[in-house]
Protein 1
Amino acid sequence: MSMTPRVTIMIATHNRIVELCKTLEVCGALTGPECEILVVDDASSDGTFELVRKRFPEVDVVRNEVNRGSIASRNDILRRARGDYLVALDDDSRFVDADACERIVARMDAEPDLGIVSFQVIGPEHPKTLLPNGREIGEWHCSSFACCGAALRRSMLDRTGFFTEFFYHAYEEPDLALRAWDAGFRVLQWNEIVVYHEFSGLNRREQRTHRRHARNEACSVVMRYPWRWVLPAVVAKLCGQARYAAHRGWLLREPRVWGEFVWRLPQALASRRAVSSEAIKIAAGVNRARCVEAWDARRLGSLPWQSILRLPPTRSTRKLEPGAAAKSSTGLVGLTQSAHSVPDLDIN
């Protein structure tokens, strides 16, 4: 293996040895640039560490003796990674096409302001994606990504920093994406690159994930928003999460979210590194108007909040070719949203 791999594939795992072996087999068959594969076994009890060392000697695997969470495990990989680009996969997600890394490197080499690329995720969690004509076509700028399928630029991380470790799990992706926009890098949903997510039910509980996401979203507001926006934004975020919890029948448990947020508030304040108001407007705007062109996305940062909030939410449709979107009343190019858009798997 080259001493300077172009790509580092990073995988954090916990007690999913069968799924992990499938993923590592696919990673080993990828074509294109030199890759290194770094795995952190987060205190598994199913023999993951020993089996990976024996069956996949080319994989650099380390073991946490105590469970530190997915975020700390990924940060450990980011500190050791040598690649120009970091490809994030879950232990149960894998590329559909063998040349995926080759195409990722070619595009990110050609577009140096492209900081994060989010891939299209298909699989049994969203059955429509497995049907004919069920996949997305096109691309748009976005405010988040999923660590089950994304690529990060190393030089961007040098400016933004890594994932927020005290989150433990959930909401680390939109928090990093906001910092990427603030640092002058773009975040793009590129549906041409496809990842199959087996989505094992092991270690996943939806209500627990909601709780972690909700508290960490509020912490991110404290850490990133200008002071004048912090209080109203925290209230709005927690109220929105409470409405979701009520819809799912979890409202009586929602005070635990508020308590965990208050418990972590000192850490959020100590970690505070506010971003520009322009970055926050971009992140909010691209959630409403799916901007294909880079200049459309960046232009959101100069609009008043009234214009951002008046952007019409994108309507559901199945497929759109790149560049087929029409101009909105604000002059922004929007790409409409699919009825089964790529999920952020750490969100609700």
Note: The two ends are 40 Å apart (CA to CA).
Protein 2
Amino acid sequence: MRVLLTSHQFLPKYSFGTEKLTFECGRELLKRGHSVHVLTSEPASLAIPQNSHWDYDYQGLKVRLFGLSVGETPDPLRYEFDNPDMAANMRGYIEEVRPDVVHVWHAGRLSGSIIKTAKELGLPVVFTATDFWSICRVIHLRRADTGELCTGPNRLATNCLRCYIARTNAPQEAKNKYLHKSDLELGLYTTLANAPILRSLGKGKRIRAVTQRIRFLKETINSVDRVIAPTKIMRDMLLRNGIKPHLLRVSRYGIETSHITAAPQSPERPPTMRFGFMGGIVRHKGLHTLIKAFRGIPALMPAELKIYGDTGRDPKYFEELKQLAGEDRRIRFMGPFEGEKVGWILSEVDVLVVPSSWYENTPLVIYEAFASGTPVIGTDLGGISEVIEHGKNGLLFKMEDAKDLNAQLLRFVLEPELLAKMRKHIKPPRSVSDSVDELEETYAELLIPRKPES
């Protein structure tokens, strides 16, 4: 079988969750004798100009990487979700490699046009919703205007319009002219922007792009043959936002764990309780809440906090975190880490903390922690609370509630038997092999010729 996988970016330059999932799926398919190709992108550069490509081999996977900067397109707002250039690139690549099935692990930056192209060419398409890209332009469903979590566009998309306006670089006074309007007034804007007369005059172009993204991607995702949601919350969000129920399947991720299980486990009851954080040092990951909570542990109690992640990703936020940490020497910023070192990092941590303030679609770091026998404290929200069983394999706390998180941290410090007790209830995560077994069945099912409807 010839399989074409897509991801908005790929290894070796990028190695976040979606990239690792795409790679591990491709590598397992390759082991089973399938021919695997990957279509991906990275920002355009002198080495790879806009819409030019570079072919390379990554551990047996044949990768085609397109130079693609959405900001350099004729209409960045539109091309983010509907890019005719990428549609042409996708068409050319499909005609070249002739895949039997296309599996879209992510279409961000590449745009939904790659999906439409595959369907126009009559190919079966599987779409895995690794995040909320198909629902939300900023992916994490957290509104820029209010800071509140969101469940997707409302009927007139006024919440999306407010969020978009708040994220622009316009002066705040100019933004407020719109942000202070009522939903009724803004709803009139979104309605009129799509009226034929304004379309012909070219007015309301940006408002149209915000609202048309919703309809375009809903229709696009509904055109695929199978939608895989790794968590129940993802399934429910997709249903809420108009994805057809018969397309959806809940299927948890399988991950590669050999590099984790090969590392030693932390001691049963260390003299100092070592809490850890691994991930993006960005606001929606909630590290500020964790530092506030940890600072509430009395200095005489034996505890430390190790923070693993790239401190240069959001310098302004990192400065805020350093201010929160103050002179507390128990808090240590360990810097970025390589994926293959995760097992060794976890051997230096007794409890992992995932304090995210958005609907994490099951962060892989929790599965990695469980593979090493490490309990997790996480936000009682979204995919996190589907994986952590409070009081069994970890503890949950209220989102952005530093006082509640502090209480959960203190339990591990004050209850000598808690660490060993929770380790006994940790189950190993699903394997890549098991998840690819299921994917092979899905691919095969979609390749069976369908009888014409009578």
Note: Residues 2 and 378 are 39 Å apart (CA to CA).
